[in-house]
Amino acid sequence: MQLRTRLAAPALLALLVLAGCTPGTASTGSGPGTSGGGAGSGAGGLDCSGAKADGYDLFVDPAITIDPQKSVYSLAAGDSIGFTYSKHDDARYPQYDWESTYIQPSDGSVFRSDASFFFDAENGKFTLEGPQAPSGIDGGPYAGFVTIGVTQDEASNGDAYDGARIVLARICVVFATSE
Questions:
Q1: Strand 73-75 relative to strand 110-117: parallel, antiparallel, unpaired?
Q2: What is the pLDDT of residue 38?
Q3: Quick one: CA dihedral 132, 140, 30, 146, positive or negative?
Q4: What value does the mean pLDDT of the chain take?
Q5: Strand pairing partners for 79?
Q6: Residues whose CB is less than 8 angstroms from the CB of residue 46 and which lie 6 or more positions away in sequence, other chains included
Q7: What is the pLDDT of residues 131-177, one digit of tens each?
Q8: Which residues of 4-21 are buried (b: 16+ CB within 10 A; e: fewer)?
Q9: Which of 58, 79, 103, 154 could disulfide-link 130, Cβ–Cβ 3.0 to 4.6 Å?
């Protein structure tokens, strides 16, 4: 009986791998608001399902491509997330930015953590690299959201700056424990 039990576990694991699943991760499929795939490296099974705040629905504009495509992204050391915005137009002086929020595990509250511009954005391509950790917060790891936005000149002539920020994506991430 013990031999059957020892053989059953590897067989079950092989079946899960062949089916495209891994233990401890969930796949949400693909389509608007999801990126498909499993959790990123270092994600530890965390996701954004514990968030109890309105306005934090996952979203990916069809004009933005995220590489790699995952349902939960890791921002641990050595991890990076690449973005390509197909509607990039140098004549509109686009400024790409990101802001992060983390989810408090005890009650699902969502708190703003950090924000910055993508200073290395070129031709609508930019990268967010780990380690990224919630600012001033001890412990973790924490799940949260990264919101990608663009602000650009709507007049396309450089004289009239509209300044309207457009949200391009809101993705689920697992932050590093420290930067």
A1: unpaired
A2: 35
A3: negative
A4: 76
A5: none
A6: 39, 72, 141, 142, 143, 174
A7: 999 887 877 889 999 999 999 876 655 555 567 889 999 999 999 98
A8: eeeeeeeeeeeeeeeeee
A9: 79
Q: Which residue has the tokens 């004289």?
A: 159
Q: What are 106-116's pLDDT values in tens digits?
A: 999 999 998 99
Residue 71's pLDDT band, with cuts at 50, 70 and 90, is: very high
Residues near 12 by beta carbon (within 8 Å), at least 6 away in sequence: none
Spatial contact of 74 and 178, defined as CB atoms under 8 Å apart:
no
Q: Where are the beta strands (DSSP E) in the chain?
A: 30-31, 34-35, 59-60, 64-67, 73-75, 80-85, 95-103, 110-117, 125-129, 143-151, 165-175
Residue type at 157? Answer: N
